[in-house]
Amino acid sequence: MLKLIQNEWMKLWYKKGTWAMVALVILFIIGPGIMLKYYDTKNSEDISWKETEQQAINNYKEMLAGDDLTPADKTYFEEQIAISEYRLAHDVPSQNEGSLASFMSFTSNMLKLVTLFTVITAASIVSSEFSTGTIKMLLTRPMSRAKILTSKLITTFIFGLFLFVVNVVVSVIVGFLLFGNGTGVELEMVNGQIAEKAVWSDLGYHYLLSGGDFVMSTLFAFLVGSVFRSSSLAIGLTMFLSFTGGMIVMFLSRYEIVKYIWLTHSNLTQYESGNPVTEGITMPFSLTVLAIYAVIFLVISYTSFMKRDVTA
Predict the structure, then answer these.
(1) For this UniProt entry, which segments traverse the membrane (predicted)?
(2) How many angstroms separate the Cα of 26 from the Cα of each of 85, 120, 161, 301?
């Protein structure tokens, strides 16, 4: 098995597209980092943090005066006003701009790019063998089809984790060089009291929850690529569901079935705010549903690959 994984890993890095993916992940961190540094430097020369906080208070008060505010929006605006007033009263600047932590929080959104590239790899790692005809040569080895498919799946996830590490490491380096550790603290409202926010633990929790969409999207793309032998179909269908998943869930929200489709649960970051997209679901329930779908995706992938006639 290890030999198969090594072989798949070597074949993956033999492709120019793999190097391009890594380069793009790095560029999509360095580029925005330089832009953020430029605007942060420019803004810091024009306005102080106290003026920024006072402006934020005024803006939130204007929003509170608007009509058709939901209770959740009203609570949010009131909390933000209280936090800004606390900063001004106690001379506590924010880390929202110009800090390593804030930059890391920003680049955590780039994990969607990591997921996209992993999906592309998952979609093509099996289908490309059929399109090029190399699958016949691969199956002549004294290895079972199950082991061959498993090696491809493991390689895909290893590559995805590699991109994740690149994202985090480059973000730390670029953030530290451009912004340093920064000053100030993050605040949040906890049970009606203003408290210092645990920025790094919250960021780690966000990274962990982002794994839900990463795993499910990869498994679904692997499934479509294995069954239909079309990487373009797998990539297109997976991306379509990723971008329209929220609308699909919203459309089905009036029906009980929405609780039992994987699109409702794949974005586990919905639990960060404590407001899941659908009422009546919890983290354990979402993890259970995702686990069931993961098994279904794998069973279909392996069954199709094991029974396929490669001589056709």
Answers:
(1) 20-39, 113-132, 153-179, 205-225, 232-253, 285-305
(2) 38, 18, 15, 32
Residue pointed to by tokens 């506590």: 92
* Residues in Cβ contact with 40 at an 8 Å cutoff, skipping those fewer than 6 apart: 97, 98, 179
pLDDT band at 131 (very low <50, low <70, confident <90, very high): low
Q: How confident is the model at residue 40 (pLDDT cuts 50, 70, 90)?
A: low
Side chain identity, residue 278: T
pLDDT more than 90, % of the chain: 18
Q: How far is CA 164 from CA 119, 236, 246, in A?
A: 13, 22, 24
Distance, C-alpha 58 to centroid of its chain? 33
Query: What letter would DSSP give residue 196?
Result: E
Per-residue pLDDT tens over the stretch 152-201: 999 999 999 999 999 999 998 988 888 776 655 677 667 777 776 767 78
Helix (H) or strand (E) holding 290: helix 283-307
Token pair 């955590």: residue? 108
In the block, residue with structure tokens 């992993």: 118
